[in-house]
Design goal:
Number of domains: 1
Distance between the termini: 40 Å
Order of helices and strands: HHHEEEEHHEEEEEHH
Largest sheet: 3 strands, antiparallel
Strand content: 15-25%
Bound molecules: zinc ion
Helix content: 40-55%
Length: 172
């Protein structure tokens, strides 16, 4: 069993398709971040669900930074609005990167910002300050809730977009 499996109990269980789609976000986060301005006002893409399993652990018990699914737009906007918390330099080429996922531990205060770089580097950098980052993300999600409710009201039963569809739309 995956060591992070426990926190899925009670929450929505992602399908394999949704997990693969979340991984597609990891692989394409560079372009998705840099072209945020183009898709940020499109509700269909903004509310694409991501299942990132972002946890921190307290005494072996996992707690989520924010419960899955996390909306793509809320996640990307949080990083871009807080470069002090989320921007980091590629350890190999020093390019400025943003994470596609993060995990951590409040005991050590440690957060691992995971990312990838066009130069080929892929991995994570260790920072301190797990609380601030989780709080920033949860605040953004709360702030986006009204927009999401409105979207659901106008488009009842609408299927959420996938990362696949966003990438195709960006290439149109
Ligand atoms: Zn690099």
């Amino acid at each position: 069993m995956d060591k992070n499996e426990f926190f899925c109990k009670g929450g929505p269980v992602p399908t394999n398709r949704q997990l693969l789609d979340t991984r597609l976000f990891y692989h394409n986060s560079g372009v998705i971040y840099t072209r945020f301005r183009e898709w940020k006002d499109n509700d269909k893409f903004y509310f694409t669900p991501l299942f990132m399993r972002m946890t921190y652990s307290i005494g072996g018990i996992g707690v989520e930074f924010a419960p899955d699914p996390v909306w793509l737009g809320s996640f990307v906007r949080t990083s871009l609005s807080h470069p002090d918390l989320f921007a980091f330099n590629c350890p190999k080429c020093r390019r400025v990167l943003y994470p596609y996922r993060y995990c951590g531990s409040p005991l050590s205060g440690r957060v691992d910002l995971e990312g990838g770089c066009p130069c080929g580097w892929k991995g994570y950098v260790i920072e301190s300050g797990w609380f601030m980052r989780g709080e920033a993300l949860r605040k953004q999600i709360a702030a986006d809730k009204d927009r999401h409710d409105k979207y659901e009201l106008i488009h009842p039963g609408a299927k959420s977009a996938t990362i696949d569809e966003l990438l195709a739309w960006l290439e149109r």
